[in-house]
Fold:
Amino acid sequence: MATLSVVNASGRSVGQHQLDERVFDGSVHIEAIRQTVLNYLANQRVGTASTKMRGEVSGGGKKPWRQKGTGRARAGTNRSPLWRHGGVTFGPKPRNYRYEIPKKVKRLALKATLNAKLQDEAIVVLESLQLEEAKTKQLVLLLQSVGAPHGALIVAEASDERLQRASRNIPDLLVRTAGSVHPYEIIRCKKLVVTLASLSLLSERLAGQADPVEESPVHA
Structure:
């Protein structure tokens, strides 16, 4: 049964935490992670790219030259896609790239990313995370003390205004709650910093997942 060292804000070990074996079982489901990441990236797309077809380009009402007798190719409009300043053939139009995947796949991907970070020894468990003031300097010192100075993802048990304000000026830092963290964010971070309370909430969130989903790759 896996355990992790619990550290305080100074980076000193204050005990051991036994991980929930229903969640931290060592399994890393690559297909679930792939589907969830692709879904996340697709849902971030705005889909506002737009081009004009030949019927939408201004001008072009007059036939450039007569049909026969000039020796040149036939032309009906100077707004043809073959012409400069003409329309665009099969160009992009505004569209919605958003789609949904099963919740079981998302939970399986979240579980898989947590196991991957555990295998990489990239999880830091904090006893608690309470900032006295909303100061960036305090948060930077804390992250340095726990060995996560760059590219960290902090998972708190609930939204904390002081923590949010202190993290604004740290460009490579993400702050999420246990109920909103996404597998894509976990897989991208260098260090996953979680509090004891948020780790318990994550375990409760994932412990009820049905086992049969893990038996074979899941397809959307």
